[in-house]
Design a protein that fits this description.
- The complex is a heterodimer of chains A (420) and B (228).
- By secondary structure, chain A is an alpha+beta fold.
- Chain A folds into 2 domains: 179 residues, no CATH class; 230 residues, no CATH class.
- Chain A is 51% helix and 15% strand.
- In chain A, β4 and β5 form a beta hairpin.
- The longest helix of chain A has 54 residues.
- Chain A starts with a helix and ends in a 6-residue tail after the last helix.
- Chain B has one domain: 3-Layer(aba) Sandwich (Rossmann fold), CATH 3.40.50.300.
- Chain B has a 5-stranded parallel beta sheet, sandwiched between helices. A 4-stranded antiparallel beta sheet of chain B has the order 2-1-4-5, covered by helices on one side.
- In chain B, β7, α7 and β8 form a beta-alpha-beta unit.
- In chain B, α6 runs parallel beside α7.
- Classes of the chains: A alpha+beta (420), B alpha/beta (228).
- Chains A and B meet through α1, α9 and α10 of A and α1, α2 and α3 of B.
Amino acid sequence: MIHLLPLALKSAWNRRATLALTLVAVALAVALLLGVERLRQDARTGFAQAVSGTDLVVGARASPLQLMLYSVYRLGEPTATMDWASVEYLAGHPAVAWAIPLSLGDSHRGFPVVATNQAYFDHFRHGDGKSLSFSQGRPFASVFEAVLGAEVAGRLGYASGHAIVLNHGAGASLAVGHDDKPFTVVGILARTGTPVDRSVHISLEGMEAIHLDWQGGAPMAGLSIPAQHVTKFDLSPKSVTAVLVGLKSRAAVFSVQRQVEAYRGEPLSAVLPGVALARLWDLMATGEQVLRVMSGLVLAVSLAGLAAVVLASLNERRRELAILRSVGARPRDILALLTLEGLVLVVLGLGLGILLLFLLTWGATPWLQTHYGLAPESILLRGQELPWLGLVLAVGFLSSLLPAWRAYRLSLADGLTPRI
Amino acid sequence: MSESVLSLENLVFRWPGQGTACLDIPAFQVQAGEQLFLQGESGSGKSTLLNLVAGVLTPAQGRILALGRDLGRLGGSARDRFRVDHVGLIFQQFNLIPYLSVLDNVLLPTRFSPRRRHRAGDPVRAAAALLGHLDLDEALWSRPALQLSVGQQQRVAAARALIGQPEIILADEPTSALDAARQTAFLDLLRQECAAARSALLFVSHDLRLSAGFSRSVALADLQRDTP
């Protein structure tokens, strides 16, 4: 069998123009199949990593998924707020280790603004339990100071000392700005691969200050409070959007959830991040399945094309096969030769596809990170991708058996004198 | 040297679906080292006979004894083994694999047959010697077979048939694509190398003029049983 390999390679090289195209088709299909799988996994791990240390997400009563999406992933608009009294209730709860209040709604050039307090820098955990660290500067200490996520600083080219202006509402529109009260960048967080990277962090007092002269989402007519006078007002936060809660013991999570949902002060929702994410993936499952089936079909088509090309070449190769028979190739050598050729092509296509996948992952990483906060866990091959590669190889092997079998039949029928 | 390498006994062969036998040969022998010219018109069953002797086809009746073995009773893969071990074949044309080099084409039988490889000693050196004897310039050896002239290709085919000294060389009109002068030159070289390798040569052609120099000449029509 192994002595046939050089022969198979030389024969394939002789028909390289036709085979190269089928090779490209197989490579694209492999890259597509693995790419879809990769995106799915990265989305899942990315989403899970962003809340890895949080036991409960609490907000005004809303759908659990919605609450998670805007509070943790900063996707979509917050619909309601919860009172500061509720935050104090949570922070003072005996089972609660820490509570991070979040106030959302403003943006800076498309990046969400998150108002929070020191607890964020002390207790927020992501990935496998990592806390936030500063690549530059320090946490905010006064009203008009801001801390940037790594992506914000990198994209916009900001450094400590930069002055930035926040916009009211999400989106990059310059319609209504808080230009009278600019913030100074005092710190930049190290990259986390989570939505933190895309966030601009300010203090809760800062959030109150820029909205002092606002009401109902618009500046109050005829009233303007200059930045230097804001400290004369009460800047303690009145309400927040959500609170991330860490418990002293994870075992208490269900009882705390029940207590929070029964809180008398106002209707609240307490969400277990894992449960909400599971709901999200359930919702996505159909779409994922469709994508998977599609990429599976593309692979099937490309392998069928491969078999068809080898099959079509058989007629012009009948003479070649008869010569091989005359110098001692047995019909089963012919079978092996053709199977080997198909297999070599599939292996090459697989290799090319993986290379393409590497390049795509590498090329798309900045874009995915900016827009979706997704960071691929690794560019190189991953353990869970190996079964897919095995599957491609097996299907490729089976599809190259078809032309091989035909060649076998032909060489039996033709003997040494092909009837062409 | 009088033992026969090939012996046909009451051989009958008929293509499927045909009423009359294509071949019906009561007796025919080829002796070891003999150089035999077999004359037959096109369509007289020459190629069929070669396919039978090469073990690609099996007879309906009768026996083909090759080196004492009854080919008809060997299994398919045993016949394949027998062919590559003991038979060298040269066809009218299109003998070579176009994308392989001249040298690789000559070495093909030694790749498939351990016996031929063993008998060739050092296969590459044996191939080089044969190619040299057959007047093929060393500069051509690494070229793809496709780039050679028809005459050169036929000589490469002869070298391939002869490598590893098989007992039987079967040649099916190998000179029909050559002009008259080259035909004689090719035949001389072929016979000379067959003698050197002590291989029996069964040369099949329609052209009786080529029979000069062969130790024996027979017409296929004379071998066939007389139909009453």
